[in-house]
Amino acid sequence: MPNTINLGQWLSSASQQLKQAGLDNARQEADYLLSHLLQKNTAYLYTRPELALETEQQLKLNTWLAERIAGKPLAWILGEWDFWGLTLEVSPATLIPRADTERLVELALQLSIDKPKARVLDMGTGTGAIALAIKKERPNWQVDAVDFKLDAVSLARKNARQLELDIRVWQSDWWQQIPPQTYDLILSNPPYIHPQDPHLSQGDLRFEPKTALVGGKDGLQAYRDLLVPIQQRLTQGGYLLVEHGYDQAAAIAELFNLAELNDIKNYKDYADQPRATLGCRS
Ligand code: GLN
Fold it and tell me: 89, 199, 198: which is closest to 151 by C-alpha?
């Protein structure tokens, strides 16, 4: 049986172990684990450092700590992750929502789309993150989302139900099963990493599904697939906005150009790296 320890002691020991394991935000991660177990915020942890942990709680925390030290993504240990102020259930079926993708949502909301009931499509939705964030901000828009993986479709639907956001989610390999209709805005954070990129063997990326990360032979295949019918799928004046790798801006602009999209613009992420490209069907 572990010795009795209190919140303060667990936090300092856990953050030290996480730090030794090479994690950058060790203290914050320890806070997350303890907050999650106790279902309390960080202020609670810090104002009650002397509170003793029960044996069961210690065992659970130590299991999580060992998993985290072995590399398991924090989001999977917690079972949920925040995106655009929404708490989303996560699973090994999909990519874990990233802060960079919140930038895509932010950019989408800045577009001048005057229609009260604009139609929006999120391609490769995963947890449903982009579609749900848009629906939250624009409740009158009709938001559709697709993913080729059935597990992702179920997860996105579950997140929509839990958040009471009315989006439609279909299983579709890119355009294959999407009903023939046009959209005012198409959004995507597709798999875009080059198969030889060393980042794939680092951090959370080691665990996340390759299908959500690797964009074919050169990292760009998903964009080609998305762009094939784009002229038939965007309304006149409709927008395509995609996330991409920091070094892909020029290649994406070229693909957008070949697909006869206009007003092509690139936007940077919160770390000042080129991260999103917008095009318009005029
Ligand atoms: N932004 C992710 C990363 O580099 C990749 C996401 C993707 O391929 N869509 O960690």
Answer: 89
* CATH code for position 23: 1.10.8.10
Please report whether residue 207 resides in a domain: yes
Tell whether 65 and 105 lie within a shared domain.
Answer: no
Kindly report the backbone phi and psi dihedral angles of residue 34, in degrees, each rounded to the nearest multiple of 5, phi listed first: -70, -40
Model pTM score = 0.95
Residue pair 234/182 in contact (Cβ under 8 Å)? The answer is yes
Which residue's CA lies nearest to atom 10 of ligand 1?
205
Give me 11's structure tokens.
Answer: 């936090």
Same-domain check for residues 32 and 101: no
pLDDT tens digits, one per residue of 52-70: 999 999 999 999 999 999 9
CA atoms within 13 A on the CB side of 42: 7
Q: Are 93 and 156 in contact (CB under 8 A)?
A: no
Report how far ligand 1's centroid is from the alpha carbon of 207 (Å): 13
The reply to whether 215 falls in a domain is yes
Give the number of the atom of ligand 1 that is nearest the alpha carbon of residue 214.
8
**Domain residue limits at 18:** 7-70
In-domain check, residue 76: no
Q: Given the DSSP bridges, would you call strands 183-188 and 119-123 parallel, antiparallel or unpaired?
A: parallel
Cα–Cα distance measured from residue 91 to residue 126, given in angstroms and rounded to the nearest whole number: 9
Counting runs of H as helices and runs of E as strands, what totals does the chain give? 11, 9
- Please give the share of the chain, as a percent, with pLDDT higher than 90: 98
